[in-house]
Structure formats: structure tokens, C-alpha cells
Design brief:
alpha/beta; 10-stranded mixed beta sheet; about 25% helix; globular
């Protein structure tokens, strides 16, 4: 049975943040709000976490997982970022973007795309996530909470608890969370390549929606 925490969307209660972080450190899978849709996530080092998320989402090993990071220096620890990429990331983060980058040896191989050795990275603009990241002192490994055969991610924490109560350890309510996922930009080939249009504006990348 999943626990359910109600956190203030701007000033999340430190006691509940600590408890949520403890659940993650113990291998718990958590559903939580971000600045662009709900996400499933936990600590990167847990070997069972990826399989649990894949089962819920019905995706295979080629699915790109995303590391939510506190800041650009943390991104640079886990991904190869050149000067031009760094400037671009600095201009648009924090915000509703996920960037596909080549992972570093700091990450377990199971976290990376099996062929490309890439991973998604992002810095969300959400007080609850920021508090969790600060308490954990490490990134959160995540995937958008989009269930199989559904077009939009889940947004209602009560519905999430009802549908996933036996598959996650914790559901966090933290204010309204819209259904639009992040904009995903691939930066591995130099010029930005649009992978998925989402909540983030494409103008900073010189891209347009198809």
C-alpha cells in the first residue's frame, strides 16, 4: 500500500521531505509532481528501480531514463557537456526540458541507452523536487508517469495512488501538475535535435514544431 504525502508546492515541509528521501534511499519508487507532469523516480544506484519503472510504463531497455539534477555542475558530473552545450543549458534551466547527452562513467551502465550510451538530464523548476534533490544530495532517476495505451501522463495524485498503490511506495501531492511532459532535445550531434515537443519553448534552440 503506497503512502501519501501532501507537500506545500512552494514551501514543502522539511519533515515530509526527509521521510520521502528516506523512502527513496531504501529502494522506494515514488510518484511526484514536477514542473511538467508527474514522474516516477528513485535513487540511481538501486538495481531494481529501472525494471520496476519499465514494468509500469511497458517500455523496453531502449527507453531513455532521465536524471533530475540540482544544477549544471551536477549535470556535468554525469554527462559530457562542451562549452556550447553548457551555455545553452545555462540559458534555459531550470525549466521543462530534458536533454539527451552522452553519459559519463559516473553512471551505472544499466542507466544508459544500451547502444548510444546516452541518458536524459534535466533541472526541474519545482520547489518539491528541489527540496528532495537537496535532501538526497544526488540526482533522482526518473521517467514520466505515462501509463501504457494512454496519451497523457497522470495528473491527479489521488488517481495515481488508486491505480499504482501496489506498485509504488509513495505518492506525493504538491499542488497542480499539468499533463504536458517536458520538451526533449538531443544535443549529442552538435546542433539541437527535437525528440519530443512538450511544455518547454523551442525558440531558444532555433527549432519549430512539425
Amino acid at each position: 500500500m503506497a503512502q501519501f504525502f501532501s507537500l506545500h508546492p512552494e514551501l514543502p515541509q522539511p519533515r515530509l521531505v526527509r521521510q520521502a528521501a528516506e523512502i527513496m534511499r531504501a529502494g522506494g519508487l515514488v510518484a511526484f509532481p514536477t514542473d511538467s507532469a508527474y514522474a516516477l523516480g528513485g535513487v540511481t544506484g538501486d538495481p531494481d528501480l529501472l525494471q520496476r519503472i519499465r514494468r509500469i510504463r511497458a517500455v523496453d531497455e531502449r527507453h531513455h531514463f532521465t536524471l533530475m539534477c540540482r544544477d549544471l555542475s551536477e549535470i556535468a558530473t554525469y554527462a559530457r557537456v562542451d562549452n556550447a552545450q553548457y551555455r545553452l543549458l545555462k540559458a534555459v534551466t531550470p525549466g521543462p526540458y530534458t536533454f539527451i547527452l552522452e553519459g559519463t562513467k559516473e553512471l551505472p551502465r544499466r542507466v544508459l541507452h544500451p547502444k548510444r550510451k546516452t541518458v536524459g538530464l534535466r533541472i526541474p523548476e519545482h520547489a518539491v523536487v528541489a527540496a528532495l534533490l537537496q535532501e538526497l544530495d544526488e540526482p533522482i532517476l526518473t521517467s514520466t508517469l505515462l501509463l501504457p495505451d494512454e496519451d497523457l501522463p497522470l495528473t491527479d495524485p489521488e488517481e495515481i495512488r488508486e491505480r499504482l498503490e501496489k506498485q509504488v511506495e509513495l505518492v506525493i501531492e504538491g499542488g497542480y501538475c499539468g499533463p504536458e511532459a517536458t520538451t526533449v532535445i538531443d544535443l549529442t550531434s552538435g546542433a539541437p535535435v527535437l525528440v519530443r515537443a512538450g511544455r518547454g519553448d523551442l525558440a531558444p534552440f532555433g527549432l519549430e514544431n512539425d
